[in-house]
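Q: what sequence does this backbone want?
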């Protein structure tokens, strides 16, 4: 079997999803890999602004399609942070994914959450982040199975890094990492039987923060974690859900998880062709600061990530190549050296960085 990407207007009832489908605005999983599409679920995708849909088709993947995909992957490699060490070692990352997959599977089967294992992974992650130099966010995104586990782990790692960057102590950073690792756990309880009823499904999806938080509360998780889960889809402008809380009324931990969730969602290949390289993801987050996100947390995040650390080679919009030699007051428009000439991109409106090379 192979995957064919179709426009949402072209898909038909009866076709099967080759991968999970996500809402691009609220970062919510709306349909799962293997789901058979119906009129209602197609409508749901349109309503949730899904444009391209991965459809399972008979036969081997066309050679042309394979080449296009590989080309796209190579292109993505170009965008990866250059030779930076991973934020969390490959060994711990793989171990964490294994644990999360076991924890979520057990949860599916028994509705029991293995809190101690989640805690232990979060502690190890935070210990590694604390031991590393700052300003390196380089997540391992390859060799992992299952989008949800990767997404939970990455969100946990990023949330933990932001907490540390904000000066929080180890135990708080660990809580925040745990919260990131569990933020979408409510999705595990969505009743897939009701997929034929768009109204009910929509309501059920909108409930995943509340369902997750309630479950974690019953499992004895502390309030910071349940708050993060309950409020991770709230927006700074008050237009989020489930409560429509605005600004600092949203608990800090939930505001941190929201930024981490967005960054990993935007940069994950599994999220369809709409996934973007780190620089563009960062730009999207920055441009939606104050609308979706707490601007202070976004600033901390941008300062921490160092998309253009000193020494990074970049391609400029006028076709020239340069090397970043310092930061300007605009984090996304650093000072670059182009053939021995210093250019402060923050002062050049018509020149910007196209990509890292
Ligand atoms: Fe969510």
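A:
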């Amino acid at each position: 079997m192979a995957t064919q990407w179709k426009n949402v207007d072209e898909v038909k009832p009866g076709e099967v999803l080759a991968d999970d489908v996500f809402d691009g605005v609220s970062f919510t999983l709306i349909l799962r890999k293997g789901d058979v599409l119906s009129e209602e679920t197609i409508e749901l995708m349109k309503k949730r602004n899904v444009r391209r849909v991965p459809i399972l088709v008979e036969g081997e993947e066309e050679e042309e399609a394979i080449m296009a995909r590989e080309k796209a992957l190579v292109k993505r490699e170009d965008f990866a942070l250059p030779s930076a060490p991973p934020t969390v070692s490959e060994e711990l990352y793989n171990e964490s994914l294994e644990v999360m997959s076991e924890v979520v599977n057990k949860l599916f089967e028994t509705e029991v959450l293995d809190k101690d294992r989640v805690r232990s992974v979060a502690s190890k992650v935070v210990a590694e982040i604390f031991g590393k130099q700052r300003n390196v966010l380089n997540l391992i995104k390859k060799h992992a199975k299952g989008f949800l586990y990767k997404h939970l782990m990455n969100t946990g790692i990023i949330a933990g890094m932001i907490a540390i960057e904000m000066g929080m102590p180890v135990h708080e950073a660990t809580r925040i990492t745990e919260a990131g690792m569990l933020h979408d756990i409510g999705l595990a309880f969505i009743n897939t039987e009701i997929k034929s009823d768009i109204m009910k499904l929509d309501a059920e999806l909108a409930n995943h923060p509340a369902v997750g938080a309630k479950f974690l509360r019953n499992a004895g998780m502390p309030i910071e974690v349940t708050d993060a889960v309950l409020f991770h889809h709230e927006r700074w402008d008050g237009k989020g859900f489930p409560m429509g809380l605005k600004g600092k009324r949203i608990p800090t931990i939930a505001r941190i998880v929201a930024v981490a969730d967005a960054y990993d969602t935007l940069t994950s290949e599994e999220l369809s062709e709409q996934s973007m390289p780190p620089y563009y993801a960062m730009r999207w987050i920055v441009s939606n600061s104050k609308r979706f996100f707490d601007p202070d947390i976004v600033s901390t995040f941008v300062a921490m990530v160092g998309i253009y650390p000193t020494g990074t080679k970049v391609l400029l919009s006028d076709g020239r190549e340069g090397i970043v030699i310092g930061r300007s007051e605009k984090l996304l428009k650093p000072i670059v050296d182009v053939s021995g000439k210093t250019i402060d991109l923050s002062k050049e409106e018509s020149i910007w960085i196209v990509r890292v090379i």
